[in-house]
Structures are given as C-alpha cells and as structure tokens.
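Tutorial, part two.
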Amino acid sequence: MNRRIEAVLLLDCRNTLAEGIQWHPGHGRLYWTDILGRTLWSCDAEGGSVETRGFDKRIGSFAFCSDDRILLALEDELALFDPETGSLKTLAPVEADEPRTRMNDGRVDRAGRFVFGGVDEHGLKPYSAVYQFNGVRALRLFDGVGCANSIAFSPDGARMYFADTAGKTIERISYETDGVLGARWTFAKLAADEGGPDGSCVDAEGALWNAQFGGARIQRFLPDGSRDIRVDLPVSQVTCACFGGPALDRLYITTARENFTDAQAAAEPTAGGIFVAEVGAAFGVTGLPEEKYTGSIAD
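Running the prediction step on this input gives:
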C-alpha cells in the first residue's frame, strides 16, 4: 500500500535549517530550532502567535523537562535553559575538543532520558557519536557517526531508530529498559530519489515517519519496514516531523533552505517554512505525546 497526501504551508518563516519540531500540549504550541539561525521558535497550532529566542550557539536539538525548563543540545555542549528567567547553564561539554562537529538530532526516550547525536560539518565523516544524558554527563552510546538523525523510539520503548544521513539506511536498535543498546538491524533503505534520511517521529501504531532531506517528502514506514503513507512537499529539504494539535492528528513538518542558490530560492520560495499534513482526517492516524526529560540534573 502506498497512500499519498500533500502538506500545506503553515508558517512562511524561511528558516535556514529548521529542525527538531515538537508539540507541547500544555502550551498548545509547536517548538523547533533554526539551527544555523541560532534561534528557538514557537507558534500555535495554526501558525500564529510566533515567538523566537536567540542564542549565542547553534541549537541542534532540545528536550522539555518535566518542569518546563529546556535541555539544549548546543553545538559543543548540553545546557539547561529556563524560559522564565532567561538563564542558561552549561551541564556537560560534548565534543568540545572536536572543531569539525556540532550536535544535531535528539529525542527523549520512553523512560525520560535524552538521547542525541552530532554531525561532522566537513563532509559527514564518521567523527561524531550518539549520546545519552544521565543528569551529570553525556554517556557515549556509539561512535563512528557522520550525521546523527532519525532518533526515535517505539511506543513500548524497546526499539530505537537511528539513521546516519551520510548513508541511505535507517536502523532499528534493541533498546533495553536501562537504556543499554542491543542488536542492530537494517529497518529500511532509501532509494536514490528519496534523498537522505533526516528526522523522524513514531505514531500510535508504531510506524516511523521519516523526513527525507533532498527528497521533498515524509515517508511512513510500517513496523515491518514496508512503505505506507507518503507526504509530498513543494520543497526539497525536508528535515523533521512531529504529531501535534489537541488530538495529535496533524503532522507538522520542518524544512530548510541550507546553501540555496538564488535560483533554488526562487524555485522553492517557501523552503525553510513549517508545513502541516492532515493525516488524521485523511487516514485516521494519530501520534504519541512527546516525552519529557524526567531525570535528575546536577546542580
């Protein structure tokens, strides 16, 4: 089965590299980062009431804490941001001695731990790694990573999804209750016209929705790895997705315009915007609430 739907523009924000989108049900808002713009963005479910916060460093990914403070995977450190006071506290350095890399994709697992990884900005060489934050420091789960992406977790938390955008493969990894990794399998391989695997989210049925950078689409993969719903976009650089709205039945999508030429910008004027696909109304699909970081944080 291969069903299709088109995403429509929600917010014409023209970010350089929008990523890491999440729905916060308590706020009734979407949050995402423009990595290269060093900005955390948010808006309501319809793309209104836009707010931005700028930072000195690039934000690869982030996670809300149970008290609504925000863990930020900045380019070379993990930091804690308090939106109420504006304070920013360094928690742990991450690859601070590796000038080629910065932090990239990340998500909270079903047990409330933040898992995130980096990218080599000079050719996607395997110089970075994937980490798990334990409240004190970033524990290295595995290395040899060119560009960490597609970090997501099955509904029961027993499987982790991961893709290195330097290749075409999405992996499924056994993920123990204590956060220890087990066996790794090839979950799906992208075709030549599908671009590179970027950010992902998992729906209530356990299917993976993968953004395909350069492929102008989001592809839903069923738990057995087969292709199902395809979401088409009018822009090529599709970066991440999340389920949101009060019923978690809308798929919100970030896009980018990284390294665009003038001709590309003219051909894709809404690139870097936020898009939405009504997958609940069309197919009856709903998502899962975004997990929050529930671990301790050392003073």
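Residues 262-267 form the longest helix (6 residues). In part three we will examine how such features are distributed along the chain.
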